[in-house]
Write a structure and sequence with these properties.
By secondary structure, this protein is an alpha/beta fold. The protein has helices spanning 2-20, 25-34, 36-39, 44-56, 97-101, 146-162, 184-195, 220-236, 257-270, 306-319, 335-344, 353-358, 362-376, 382-385, 391-398, 403-409, and strands at residues 73-75, 78-80, 84-86, 107-113, 126-129, 134-137, 171-175, 201-205, 247-251, 274-277, 299-301, 326-329, 346-351. It starts with a helix and ends in a 6-residue tail after the last helix.
Length: 415
């Protein structure tokens, strides 16, 4: 029954594909998005599976237009055609990288991936709040495991070798731990060893609320030990002239002031290359609490998360003194939202939930709106706007007084 529903959903996307390729790319995107309401009549997880299969089969539009020059940016020494990326959690098994990059994302992050396959938590485990374009999930790192994902990444690399345009931007690999593992650091190191050579950057996810005990790894002592072990494993591997992929940590929005200070201190002291802020929240802010789905356990994502995650992002920019690239994630639904993340301190921005609601047409719209925001406020590039809400920190870093900032700039970091 599940297979039949997936095939029917993919066929619906394919039926649209049969005629939207005769239209201009914006019309193609709108037509692809128009199938969304039909698919969303299904169970949320089934809708997710259908979306992945449509992307994996290249049934979605392919936007080959160059991005506006103002959106081009360089972070971690990597070139991004635009700063809008797809967050981890959508393509958990790296099955649809080419199709998703083809939609116009500046980068795509796959995972979270655990060393061994695991089914995740019992179903149902995804709950929509459509009135708010929000979702609550308790997936629990369901994925096929590092070996299967490695095969998928090898297949993508082979396809991209034949058609380099398939790899529009950098590819991130998000690592997790198995639910029953007694050694979290070992799990991350296993995943890194198997997948790092296929990644442009790596993410250690210590912030999902759906794996018991995972968020405890954000404590200062625990995080420092974990980062040192994982970073050491990466650095002992043999790398070419370009060196190892940057290592990022993904943190939760549910942090108190001490948590934030500790994470910032560990990230700077241990040489982490960046932070992703943030994962989903276990809180039910504002009007979310009025909806029945709010009673479900799991992480909340979508626009109700925006203010909380952006607040933490701003705090982490301040606590790191602008010396670390930050990726803003959580509740982005428009180019203005992305711009606010950038002004708060994000060098890159990720989204997921609103994309699942609105479909492919969201991506060109957000990029267009972001370019308009930059132009409106007199910024010629994304890099110029990063941290604009923190003028004192920006002045300090640009003055050359901060030795840490100077050291970071040698790695290609943006301020």
């Amino acid at each position: 029954m599940l297979k039949r529903a997936v095939l029917l959903g993919a066929a619906a996307a394919g039926g649209a594909a049969a005629y939207y390729y005769t239209a201009d790319i914006d019309t193609q995107m709108e037509m692809a998005s128009a199938t969304g309401p039909l698919v969303r009549m299904l169970d949320p997880e089934l809708s997710h599976i259908i979306g992945i299969q449509a992307a994996a089969r290249r049934l979605l539009p392919r936007d080959t237009r160059p991005d506006p020059p103002a959106l081009h940016t360089k972070v971690f020494g990597l070139d991004f055609p635009n700063p809008i990326g797809l967050a981890a959690g959508f393509d958990k098994n790296a099955e649809a990288v080419a199709g998703l990059m083809g939609l116009g994302f500046g980068f795509v992050e796959v995972g979270s991936i655990t060393p061994k396959p695991q089914p995740g938590n019992p179903t149902p485990r995804v709950f929509r709040i459509p009135e708010l374009k929000a979702t609550i999930n308790r997936y629990g790192f369901n994925n096929l495991g590092a070996d299967a994902v490695q095969d998928h990444l090898l297949a993508f690399e082979a396809a991209a070798e034949k058609d380099p345009a398939l790899k529009r931007g950098p590819l991130g690999v998000n690592l997790g731990k198995n639910k029953n593992s007694k050694d979290a650091a070992l799990d991350y190191c296993i995943g890194l060893t198997k997948l790092a050579t296929h990644a442009d950057y790596l993410v250690v996810n210590v912030s999902s609320p759906n794996t018991p005990g995972l968020r405890a790894l954000q404590g200062r002592k625990e995080l420092e030990a974990l980062v040192n072990q994982v970073k050491g494993t990466r650095d002992r591997m043999v790398w070419g002239q370009s060196g190892p992929p940057p290592l990022l940590i993904k943190v939760a929005p549910d942090l108190n002031e001490l948590d934030k200070r500790d994470i910032a201190a560990v990230a700077l002291a241990c040489g982490v290359d960046g932070l992703i802020i943030s994962n989903t929240t276990i809180q039910r802010p504002g009007e979310v609490a009025n909806y029945p789905a709010a009673q479900e356990a799991g992480g909340l994502s979508g626009p109700p998360l925006f203010a909380m995650s952006t607040g933490v992002l701003s705090d982490m920019y301040r606590l790191t003194g602008g010396r670390l690239p930050l990726v803003g994630c959580g509740g982005v639904a428009s180019g203005e939202d992305a711009y606010k993340k950038i002004r708060a301190g994000a060098s890159l921005v990720q989204l997921y939930t609103v994309f699942a609601y609105e479909g492919p047409a969201l991506i060109p719209r957000i990029k267009r709106e972001l370019a308009e925001c930059l132009k409106r406020d007199g910024f010629t590039s994304v890099a110029d706007a990063v941290g604009a809400d923190h003028p004192d920190i920006r002045r300090h870093n640009s003055s050359g007084k901060s030795s840490a900032a100077q050291a970071g700039s040698k790695k290609g970091w943006l301020w």
